[in-house]
Amino acid sequence: MTYLAQNPTSLSNTPIQGIGPIGLQNKLTAEVFTVFPNVISLIIGFLTAAAFLWFLLQLFLGAISWISSGGDVKSVEQARSRIMNAIIGLVLVLAALIFFSVIGTVIGIDILNLNAILIKLTP
């Protein structure tokens, strides 16, 4: 019974595997500490890229609205507001990245690099 508790794959010849791209393969613990940070980094990178693309789209639509306003004060003000909101949003995203980077440097943990954090936690 002790052998079964220590060797979870003893009931079959195949290692434990999860479902999907996060599914764990041969080295259960090692894979967790490499897959999870990679997924988190991928999500952060994707959201940052999506925020930048959203900024470009809003900037472009604001510029088109401004050009096609025909001198109407209300339309120009709406276009200006859209452009300013896009710039403020981009600044907030960049400020958040800088904030987490600075906080991580101050406390000695690289928050944006979870792989290094998790490897330090392993025995």
Q: What would you say this structure looks like, in words?
A:
The protein has 123 residues and is an all-alpha fold. The protein is built from 4 helices and no strands. The chain has one domain. It starts with a helix and ends with a helix.
What's the short version?
This protein has 123 residues and is an all-alpha fold. It contains four helices and no strands. The chain crosses the membrane at residues 39-67, 87-109.
Protein topology:
Layout: H1 2-6, H2 28-67, H3 73-107, H4 114-121
Strand content: under 5%
Helix-strand topology string: HHHH
Which outline best applies? elongated
Whole-angstrom Rg: 24 Å
User: How many helices does DSSP assign?
Assistant: 4
Structural class: mainly alpha
Name the helicity range.
over 70%
Got a strand count? 0
Transmembrane segments: 39-67, 87-109
Pfam families: T4SS_pilin
Keywords: Membrane, Transmembrane, Transmembrane helix
Descriptive terms for the model:
single chain, 123 residues, mainly alpha
